[in-house]
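Renewal narrative, Specific Aim 1. Our central claim is that a sequence can be written position by position from structural information alone. The example that follows is taken directly from our test logs and has not been curated for this report. It begins with the structure tokens describing the chain, in the order in which they were read.
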């Protein structure tokens, strides 16, 4: 038995209960959930001999080990803590950019329908991945472990590469956001222009590194998740109220979709941003921390994320676009007008929440490095602290440098959605479900999943081309280390 199995065994839960309880009136979501329920049969877990001597039948349940060893904590967190981890991701400072990056290119109709459909499809796809967490008699605690079990070692490494790109790009965006918050605070109090955006990004990267040194693993964020929620509410409520006040006192706004040479590319990029808004690309890693029964508890966490957790995102996104129309900034706090101290509070909250949220999306890389180099034992032992300073500091230094070189936040959101969020969340999730279920699906069900694989694969390709085109265009407009 490996070192992570002590006190970390989980049981195979009953498959999901009804997945319609919250979105009763949402036809798109109900239809998608109906398909999942229709296909909801017990996964093939293998015989007792196949899963090993340490996994024994008792009272109709199968106890399982994790897929591979890890020095981070497994099966320790309640479902609501995991729900707050997921909510922290979707309500991070990125929400301050959706009015400009999603609503402006798509307009009221396209943006609203797009956000709702993206939520429905994302919930469905994430539910598929959550229900593949316990296969082969083991808890697959990493996305690459799950892909490797189903497809083999080559897919293991390809999935790890896609996930690494996804998380690196997300972290790049977070550091850009934090730098923009620092720059916005500076501009509120000085018009000398001495503190440029690249310097602000450097400050943000340094603070993120300090935080990473002190938080050894994802489960250790317990108290910080409360602070994160508070900070999120601060900048979301301020952004909402100032936008409301500005919108009431402003003349009629233009809500027309801007026309330019990059019109079609902006639209496709906005679709990629829709997908990016709801998905982490690291669901198995987050699910690994949840207490048993892992699947049942993950269902609760996902419903929390896509119902209560999504309300702040909708509120600030729609209000920002209503107040400023097609001129909305990709960082909403640059558009709002109000008392200096209020805007300062919002930007400080945005900065601090970003520091916490970045740690969530960097944790798979931290877990890989900590496990590979054997950083077990007391996480606050001097050797382990020095290890984190050297390794995590180096990782975030590279991330900060890329952020300063290309501070085009909206473009990075589109590229991240195209290169990794689409493949990991939609393409791979549906195909893995097909592989695991094998002959248990009807022809109609197989066709549905293949439609998802092909359709989202095509969207991923189109979105990648559009995002690269937008980055090239912006790179011509703005030089490297631009002070936006």
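The sequence written for that structure reads:
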């Amino acid at each position: 038995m490996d070192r992570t199995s002590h006190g970390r065994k989980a049981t195979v839960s009953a498959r999901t209960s009804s997945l319609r309880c919250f979105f009763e009136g949402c036809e798109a979501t109900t239809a998608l959930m109906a398909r999942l329920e229709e296909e909801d049969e017990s996964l093939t877990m293998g015989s007792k001999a196949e899963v090993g001597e340490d996994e024994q039948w008792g009272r109709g349940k199968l106890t399982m080990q994790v897929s591979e060893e890890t020095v981070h904590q497994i099966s320790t967190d309640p479902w609501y803590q995991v729900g707050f981890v997921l909510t922290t991701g979707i309500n991070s400072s990125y929400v301050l950019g959706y009015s400009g990056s999603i609503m402006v290119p798509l307009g009221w109709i396209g943006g609203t329908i797009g956000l709702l459909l993206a939520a429905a499809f994302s919930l469905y796809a994430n539910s598929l991945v959550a229900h593949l967490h316990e296969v082969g008699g083991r808890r697959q605690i990493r996305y690459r472990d799950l892909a490797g079990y189903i497809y083999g070692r080559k897919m293991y490494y390809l999935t790890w590469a896609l996930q690494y790109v996804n998380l690196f790009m997300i972290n790049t965006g977070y550091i850009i956001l934090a730098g923009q918050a620092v720059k916005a605070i500076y501009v509120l109090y000085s018009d000398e222009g001495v503190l440029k955006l690249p310097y602000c990004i450097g400050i943000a990267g340094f603070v993120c590194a300090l935080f990473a040194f002190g938080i050894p693993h994802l489960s250790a964020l317990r108290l910080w998740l409360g602070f994160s929620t508070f900070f999120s509410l601060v900048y979301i409520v301020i952004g909402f109220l100032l936008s409301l006040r500005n919108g009431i006192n402003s003349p009629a706004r233009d809500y027309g979709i801007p026309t330019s040479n990059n019109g079609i590319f902006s639209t496709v990029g906005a679709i990629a941003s829709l997908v990016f808004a709801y998905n982490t690309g690291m669901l198995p890693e987050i699910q690994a921390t949840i207490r048993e029964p892992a699947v049942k508890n993950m269902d609760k966490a996902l419903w929390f994320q896509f119902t209560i957790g999504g309300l702040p995102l909708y509120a600030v996104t729609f209000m920002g676009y209503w107040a400023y129309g097609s001129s909305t900034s990709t960082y909403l706090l640059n558009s709002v007008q109000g008392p200096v101290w209020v805007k300062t509070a919002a930007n400080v909250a945005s900065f601090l929440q970003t520091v916490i949220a970045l740690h969530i999306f960097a944790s798979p890389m931290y877990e890989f490095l900590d496990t590979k180099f054997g950083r077990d034992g007391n996480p606050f032992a001097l050797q382990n602290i020095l290890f984190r300073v050297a390794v995590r500091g180096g990782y975030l230094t590279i991330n900060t440098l890329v952020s300063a070189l290309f501070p085009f936040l909206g473009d990075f959101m589109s590229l991240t959605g195209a290169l990794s969020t689409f493949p990991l969340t939609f393409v791979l999730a549906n195909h893995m479900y097909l592989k695991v279920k094998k002959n248990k699906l009807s022809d109609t069900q197989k066709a549905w999943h293949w439609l998802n694989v092909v359709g989202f694969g095509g969207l991923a390709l189109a979105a990648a081309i559009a995002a690269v085109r937008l980055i090239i265009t912006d790179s011509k407009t703005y030089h490297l280390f631009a002070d936006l």
